[in-house]
Automatic annotation (TrEMBL), chain A:
A UniProt-annotated Pfam family: CotJA
Protein name, entry field: Spore coat protein CotJA
Native source species: Domibacillus iocasae
Biological classification of the source: Bacteria, Bacillati, Bacillota, Bacilli, Bacillales
Keywords annotated in UniProt: Capsid protein, Virion
Source species, domain of life: Bacteria
InterPro entries: Spore_coat_CotJA (IPR020256)
TrEMBL record, chain B:
Protein family according to the UniProt entry: Belongs to the manganese catalase family.
Superkingdom assignment: Bacteria
Stated name of the protein: Spore coat protein CotJC
Organism listed in the record: Domibacillus iocasae
Cofactor: binding comment: Binds 1 Ca(2+) ion per subunit. Binds 2 manganese ions per subunit.
Length: 82, 189
């Protein structure tokens, strides 16, 4: 028995219902994004920032909003590069 | 009025010759949840939104035009050197016979842009909730584009654009909080 709650992730998943006569092999899990903007409410002051150069690359100044996305259906996906 | 900077908001590099990706990217060019729809939606709603949040719509609309430019650059790079046969193989024969390799505000299925994609209800909450939904739909579209694209450099630019949608969603959500205006008043409901 694992009593620990699963670690927080911005990628949620579920297994769709499988009917006995479904024509295609199962996809397995379906994935969807729940980005940080869903959780924070009004942004509080003084949050940690990226450096200006990093912010321009990543698309946000605020670390809390950075949400790297990769195709969850590809093997080995989910690791940010660089 | 605007001040134009003759550069893209984020570099666009395309490393593989795959005109089919241009067809998919058109969803973000002239599609219902694309950058043109977003820019026009916010730029129009800003006139009838309370003063406190006009700037949010104005700034985000302006940035959406910068994103439109990036998408246009991607599509242009992917189609400018394609022969008619290559465009046909990419599913763009219908586009070619109508437009050659000119860009046009179509979605990925070739449906032309229409103002019916956007709304302006005049109710600030209704309009901001529509804007939040539009950002989430654009974010999802970028995810599906990243999923079907295997060009790492193109995906890098698409990831930047997706991240901006996340931030825009946050700012529209904050605009709703400002209009609700109960934040600093300690009230028990």
């Amino acid at each position: 028995m694992n009593s620990q709650p699963p670690p927080f992730t911005n990628v949620k998943s579920y297994v769709p219902f499988r009917g006995p006569c479904d024509p295609c092999p199962p996809i397995g899990r379906k994935y969807f994004s729940t980005p940080p903007s869903l959780y924070l409410g009004f942004q509080p002051p003084g949050l940690p920032q990226f450096s200006p150069a990093d912010a321009l690359r990543k698309g946000t100044l605020w670390k809390v909003f950075y949400d790297y996305y990769d195709n969850p259906y590809r093997k080995g996906a989910g690791k940010p590069r660089g | 009025m605007w001040t134009y900077e003759k550069k893209l908001q984020y570099p666009v590099k395309v490393s593989t010759c795959n005109p089919t990706l241009a067809k998919y990217l058109m969803e973000q060019y002239g599609g219902a949840d694309g950058e043109l729809a977003a820019a026009l939606r916010y730029m129009n709603q800003r006139y009838t939104i309370p003063d406190k949040v006009i700037g949010v719509l104005n700034d985000i609309a302006t940035e959406e035009f910068a994103h439109l430019e990036m998408i246009a650059t991607m599509i242009y790079k992917l189609t400018k050197d394609a022969t008619p046969q290559q465009l046909r193989d990419a599913g763009l024969a219908e586009h070619y016979v109508s437009h050659d390799s000119a860009l046009f505000y179509n979605n990925a299925a070739g449906v032309p842009f229409t103002a019916a994609y956007i709304q302006a209800k005049g109710d600030p909450i209704a309009d901001l909730y529509e804007d939040i939904a539009a950002e989430e739909k654009a974010r999802a579209t970028y995810q599906w584009l990243i999923d079907v694209s295997d060009d790492p450099d193109l995906n890098d630019s698409l990831r930047f654009l997706r991240e901006r949608e996340v931030v825009h969603s946050q700012r529209f959500r904050e605009a709703v909080e400002i209009l609700k205006d109960e934040r600093d008043q300690k009230k028990v409901f």
